[in-house]
Amino acid sequence: MRLLRRLRIEPFILAILAAVVVAAFLPATGGAADALDWVTTIGIAALFFLYGARLEPRELLVGLTHWRLHSVVLVATFVLFPLLGLLGQWLLTPVLGPALAAGFLFLTLVPSTVQSSITFVAIARGHVSAAVVSASVSNLLGVFVTPLLVFALMTTDGSVVITWDSVGSIALQLLLPFVVGQLLRRWILPVIRRIPRIALFDKTVIVLVVYAAFSEGVADGIWSTIGAAELAWLLVACCVLLAVVLGLTELASRALRFEDRDKRVVQFCGSKKSLATGLPMAAVLFVGQPIGLMVLPLMLFHQIQLIVCAWLAGRYGRAADAASA
């Protein structure tokens, strides 16, 4: 437990890993799988409804005053990452196979995190209010941009098939609940705030999505195709991807002569990928396909980014404190 605290591995991550282990030995099959499918479908819709209810629209308007900073974050999230994802998919397909390589590309298409991005910016003594806006805008646009990027980049080589049924599922499970949540925010938000530990609902849905995805993989026998070498290559690829993005966002901030506190926003908000948003999207977008393999790169990258960025933010924070002292 002491080691886990040092590595900042949250109980949520442990719950996700536990879901993978349980799915490996006790996968949901038959009627249980059908019931789980309905539960996750309803849970994903409720999750995006809550996302819409929580997002403060006025934050987006305030953020327009820092348009250069937010533009760099969005370019890193939805342009730089996908370009690196395409390059990574091309390089990794011979060693990982098409499914895992497609999953590597998918992780680069999801939006940035909100909570961890803001937390790391705060630890690094960065511009917290700007981080709130950048992370929120990324998640808001991600609901629309990520499916479009999947359509544009992942359906051209045949590794992913998107049908009109998938389009309808995206609209019903992601976009419609999100918009309804925004419209009803005035009445729903006070109710949400009175519910203790409402965040557990979000995490429970994610854990169920992971369990359902890996159960399907076990039932289909796809895990027999993954070996230690493939996992090692995938870990290395995720580490290299994070290092490249952290380095390029730092260089871009220096080139644009941002203040130090704004540099931290660009680096931490521009280098994150959201597990909480990406997993439900994968469950909707990749119906009938090896979802377990699709989301495995995102799960690994998420944990790596938490460990590395926690260390980096602490280093920045200590340097800033020393400078002010």
UniProtKB/TrEMBL annotation:
Q: Which residues cross the membrane?
A: 12-29, 35-52, 72-92, 98-123, 130-154, 166-184, 205-226, 232-253, 274-300
- CC terms in the record's Gene Ontology section: plasma membrane
InterPro entries referenced in this protein's UniProt entry, alphabetically? Na+/solute_symporter_sf, Put_Na-Bile_cotransptr
Which organism does this record belong to? Dietzia lutea
This one is known as Bile acid:sodium symporter
Q: Which UniProt keywords apply?
A: Membrane, Transmembrane, Transmembrane helix
Instruction: Name a Pfam family for this protein.
Output: SBF_like
Q: Which PANTHER family match?
A: SODIUM_BILE ACID COTRANSPORTER 7 (PTHR18640:SF5), SOLUTE CARRIER FAMILY 10 MEMBER 7 (PTHR18640)
